[in-house]
Amino acid sequence: xxxxxxxxxxxxxxxxxxxxxxxxxxxxxxxxxxxxxxxxxxxxxxxxxxxxxxxxxxxxxxxxxxxxxxxxxxxxxxxxxxxxxxxxxxxxxxxxxxxxxxxxxxxxxxxxxxxxxxxxxxxxxxxxxxxxxxxxxxxxxxxxxxxxxxxxxxxxxxxxxxxxxxxxxxxxxxxxxxxxxxxxxxxxxxxxxxxxxxxxxxxxxxxxxxxxxxxxxxxxxxxxxxxxxxxxxxxxxxxxxxxxxxxxxxxxxxxxxxxxxxxxxxxxxxxxxx
Length: 274
Hints:
By secondary structure, the chain is an alpha/beta fold. 31% of the residues lie in helices and 27% in strands.
């Protein structure tokens, strides 16, 4: 039987310094060289994920933007993609304007990936996000909201306090045209509300990838609520010890934390033949 192994990055494979421990890279790369079908599913873009996952060997496509894209990491080729319709984008725009929230808008404009935002409405969370991505060619700063929603939009990120984002989350989590998550940023006080097309989930992307690679089973690893759909469709699922309780309740088992090489140690112990 062919098994697909899928891990989340932040808080799961990445340590608290947003890097993969050398031990984990050595173990996983060794298993991949022997034939392990291993990849990651992340809320990050391929650009951002490639930086923090430097040194990790991935021979099969990766899942980015919480499942909005399946991408060949070596070429950047997009194998599958989920975009909003114009009506869906207009609905998000209207709700965010009504709640005085200025988002980060991810889209393809003339075939080029861009992240657009209004510079006069940057809060501390957005400034931190941008500060970690200096030199990123996707960044598209705007002086006002004109053009903020240009192009083929596939992802919205709203960063702020839980109280201001909760009404937006309640609207879109109850609308079957969208996937919406609300969670606190790792190691930070601010919250992120992320709005995606309905089929943009790690679970849907894993189903597609499982079929593409003719796999029979899925084993997954995660730490937070956006990993819940992935856990629910996995044959086995393991939460790192630093995971949220809601995910631990769904897990097949609990493994070591992200700082303790939990994923790599589990793989080393349990994957005997590949």
